[in-house]
Amino acid sequence: MFAIVYHEYGGPEVLKPAVMPRPHAGRGEAVVRVHAASLNAFDLMARAGRYKPNPGFPHILGSDFGGEVEEIGPDAGVPYRRGQRVTAWWVVPCGTCEQCAAGHPNRCALDYKYLGAHLPGAYAQYVKLPAVNLVPIPDSMTFEEAAAFPTAFGTAWHMLVTIAELRPGETVLIHAASSGVSTAAIQIAKLVGAYVYATGSTDEKLARAREIGADETINYATADFQGEIMRRTGKRGVDVVVEHVGGDVWEKSIRSLTRGGRLVTTGGTAAYDVTMNVAYVFHKELRLLGANSTTRGELAAQMPLIAAGKLRPVVDRVFPLDQAADAHRYMAGRRHFGKVVLRIPHES
Fold first, then answer.
1. Is the confidence at residue 184, as pLDDT, over 80?
2. 195-200 and 216-219 as β-strands: parallel, antiparallel, unpaired?
3. Confidence of residue 271 (pLDDT cuts 50, 70, 90)
4. What class is the 153-290 domain?
5. What class has domain 2-149+313-343?
6. 211: closest CA among 340, 307, 337, 333?
7. Which residues pair with 136 in a beta bridge?
8. Tell me, what's the pLDDT at 267?
9. Which residues contact 268 (CB under 8 A, 6 or more apart)?
């Protein structure tokens, strides 16, 4: 099969086309014919060697995809048929540790793996994964939208609905409005009934954030977002902050919270190391909440909302698979709003 692989860590230029063995479904597994795969910030970090989960080289990136079931292995125990349109939960947990047994497989403590990281991913014509991870998609959803869905909407739902327990009427600050997770978080927060403030680096991106539901926007390149939040809320602050940037954004985010507020974080695209004044946390009785990926159930729960048009993945630009290096450069340039997607070729 045709795939994009890398044989060493480095810049986008290390991504090379290759012919790789086509996977076949073993017991309990499925093989999906991939039509589209989306980029995540993790892809760029893994390729560069900032994070090194791959067991060896060559390695295939890509956790999120849209495609059709090609093969179902024996004893899969799923009702899916060949040709069924699907996406998937990209996490492959052990299924037996205390966290998995307690219903938190995204916290797997024993053997946590995921597609495109520890396992071969979807920058390829075919991808193999546990059949139980598959998630059927509605007819109205394109393969490109399906590829743009799992990490963005799964993570945002897990952060806002499951972990932060966002409620109608609350206020929420969502950083980096143009990222996949944030475009999903804006829509989910509005669906819950919250009032949304969103930050971004350009007025163009912020205009698009308002188009998908943000009530107010702040250009952090020209204004101090923490000062703006306090000014606009009458020094109250917001109930919830959605944070996945890290670095210098962290402490200002904490200072943007109202008393009893919650900060929920799922990463550090700028930096993992942060500093803070702990007095703000205990004096205002703040809660700092971690959120790791999502669960298959949280993905499936959103499909009726996708089908009804209440949520919609934002696809910024689609590149052919053989231009994956250009797609990485484009994403690294932070010019996108929403998801960058690769279209996978197949012979007719």
1. yes
2. parallel
3. confident
4. alpha beta
5. alpha beta
6. 337
7. 86
8. 83
9. 244, 245, 246, 247, 274
